[in-house]
Amino acid sequence: MGSIIVAKRVSKSFGKKEVLSNINLTVKEGEIYGLIGPSGSGKTTLVKILVGMDSDFQGEVEVLGAAMPNMNVLSKIGYMAQSDALYPELTGEENLQFFASLYKLKKEERKQRIAYAADLVKLTPHLSKKVMAYSGGMKRRLSLAIALIHNPQILVLDEPTVGIDPELRLSIWHELSRLKNEGKTIVVTTHVMDEAEKCDRLAMVRDGKIITGGSPSELKNQYAVNHLEEVFVKAGGKNI
Amino acid sequence: MRTIAVVRRIFQQMLRDKRTLALMFVAPLLILTLFHFLFTSNTAENPKLGVANADDALVKQLKDKDITVITYERVGNAKKTIVDDQLDGFMQIKGEGIQLTFENSDPSKTKALQIKIQQVIAAQSAKKQASIMKEWIQHLQKTLNAPKIKMEQVSSPKMHIAYVYGNKDTSFFDVLSPVLVGFFVFFFVFLISGIALLRERTTGTLERLMATPIRRSDIVFGYLLGYGLFAVIQTVIVVFFAVKVLDIMLVGSLWHVIIINLLLALVALSLGILLSAFANSEFQMMQFIPIVIIPQVFFAGILPVEGMANWLQMIAKAMPMYYGGDALKSVMYKGVGLGDIRMDLFVLFGFALLFITLNVFALKKYRKI
Ligand SMILES: Nc1ncnc2c1ncn2[C@@H]1O[C@H](COP(=O)(O)OP(=O)(O)O)[C@@H](O)[C@H]1O
Ligand SMILES: [Mg+2]
Q1: Based on the domain organization, do A115 and A43 belong to the same domain?
Q2: Considering A131, A152, A173, which residue would you say is the last residue of a domain?
């Protein structure tokens, strides 16, 4: 299995405040990689650097072997932002169409992808509504559908299940493992520990540093605990 | 291709937003119409002049000059009489001298009245002079016993007036309107495009776009084309309305007017989206209006720039509306062709090019490509 995303010695500051310090991580092909940490720990900042939205940082990031930002690589990444960046005056369908038209998709394929993505997040009956009339959860789901619209090889999802009801959350995770089995690589951030269990490998983030990493079972064995929360407390405690 | 996607999205958003459409297409027409009636309605009343101790001939001549004359037997306080009787001025003949008092709440009205009175008085004294002369000569002839010569009455020469630009019916509005047409196009395009890109920044969609394979230049050109097409429609509507409905004087070609306005719109568009990079909210975008937009009006040719202090002229030359205003006035009022305003057009095009390039750079804070 090759490395899809490699970050070396990544540091980032906003003004004087260092938000990420010396982050090293490798995401392998076909895995679900989880970034777990409390809010404000730097997950969003890190993820933005990984997808090339922010090039103002120290260190190196390579995705599919290329330095970011790279147009070719960008067209293979599906990104879901933590805050929904949607066009409220447009309908759900128009939002999907707009983002789809930024990728090279044939007309027929575009139609299919829109139908698939909308169905996956259960938005098909609401596609002709304007986004400003959507609830918070519906907006999250539309953002996820947009991330999937071009059938990307890499998915980067920033807190994808916040504000989504448990039933749909389960079906989304189900779909993520199906996509993984298709060979897609997925990076997910979350602050919910039971979601962390579903990842193949984890990196625990606190105050801009990766305090520990590994598969959920490895981590629990290593720290001799039954729950990932305890790993977090123990690993974090060592560092403080 | 991605540029077209941005253009299509802008169209969808604009067509949804009826208020903004109305602002862009209807508001300029309303303001232009208002200006038209403000400057061309000739309902100005005749000035009212109180007169004391004047002879009938003088009063008659004043009346011939469209002055409403009210004669007074005696006056105590001229100023008080003016205020009490709502006069525009008061004239008292005191022996050889004339005492004029003006109400002067509207200096231009005062000037007009004063000129009329001076003309009447000058004509009167010329006549008096002539009759004294005649008497004197007759007296001379009598004493010298010379043969009588007939004195010819000098009639004032008939004046024929010609104008290089405009005609005797030209009003200030005819000079003002080319500038107004250009200014409205400039102002509304600036505001709408600027706020649109700003919204894209504040809602996070601009940043989100950076996670897609769109180029910075795709975004800038998408905005230029998308709002540019609306600007074209707006320009055509405003120009046609001004010329065909308000009957604004248009000596040159309508198409030249449209070309100039389109260039102005392009400058406004690129300036608007550029300045939106320096604003964090719609309110901050509005703050650019007094700083960037209002000064343009002063230097657009409503006030003569040639007469300004040197440093003011320098400022004028840094303003796109200075060139736009000059070009529009030249075509609409003076009727020159494109060749004579090519400098204006070049400079406007230069402004647009500069702002567009700066725009692509301004987006660099998001991403390098
Ligand atoms: N644009 C910004 N300017 C200044 N500070 C920021 C900015 N974005 C994030 N931060 C700071 O960086 C830290 C990490 O934020 P973030 O990456 O959003 O954390 P998380 O996604 O883990 O909740 C926070 O302390 C936050 O205040
Ligand atoms: Mg976050």
Answers
A1: no
A2: A152
What is residue B163's DSSP assignment?
A: -
**Does residue A173 lie within any of the structural domains?**
no
> How many other CB atoms sit within 10 Å of the CB of residue B6?
24
A66 and A8 fall within a common domain: yes
**A11/A44 same-domain check:** yes
Which chain A residues contact residue B9 at CB under 8 A? 87, 90, 94, 98
Return the pLDDT at A238. 47
B212 contacts on A by Cβ (under 8 Å): 74-75, 99, 102-103
Which residue is closest in CA terms to ligand 1's atom 3?
Answer: A14
Tell me, yes or no, whether A172 lies in a domain: no
CA angle B63, B69, B71 (to 5 degrees): 130
Please indicate, yes or no, whether residues A28 and A55 belong to a single structural domain of this protein.
yes
Relative to the alpha carbon of A206, which ligand is closest? 1
Give the domains, in start order, of chain B with CATH numbers. 2-40+171-365 (no CATH), 48-144 (3.40.190.10)
CB A228 within 8 Å of CB A201: no
Ligand 1, pocket residues at CB < 6 Å: A 14, 19, 37, 39-45
Q: Does A55 touch chain B (CB under 8 A)?
A: yes
Tell me the chain B residues in contact with residue A79 when contact means C-beta distances shorter than 8 Å.
208, 211
Domain extent at residue A118: 83-152
Ligand 2 centroid to Cα of residue A3, in Å, is 24
Strand, helix or coil for residue A91: strand
> A51 vs chain B: nearest CA distance in angstroms?
6
B198-218 pLDDT, tens per residue? 988 888 899 899 999 998 889
Residues A90 and A70 in one domain: no
B42 pLDDT more than 70 = no
Both A235 and A159 in a single domain?
Answer: yes
Contact (CB<8Å) B213/A90 = no
Interface membership of A67 toward B (CB under 8 Å): no
pLDDT, tens digit, 9 for 90 and up, residues B88-135:
899 888 877 888 899 888 888 888 888 888 888 888 888 888 888 888
ipTM: 0.89
Closest by CA to B367, choosing from B225, B214, B221, is: B214
Cα–Cα distance, A112 to B151 (Å, whole number):
106
Cβ-defined contact of B209 to A90 (cutoff 8 Å): no
Contact B269/B349 with Cβ under 8 angstroms?
Answer: no
| CB-CB contact of A143 with A86 (8 Å) | yes
Minimal CA–CA distance to A44: which of A74, A76, A12?
A: A12
Q: CA separation (Å) from A21 to A12, A46, A59, A107, A160?
A: 7, 10, 10, 44, 25
- Whether residues A32 and A142 share a domain: the answer is no
Identify whether A175 is part of a domain: no
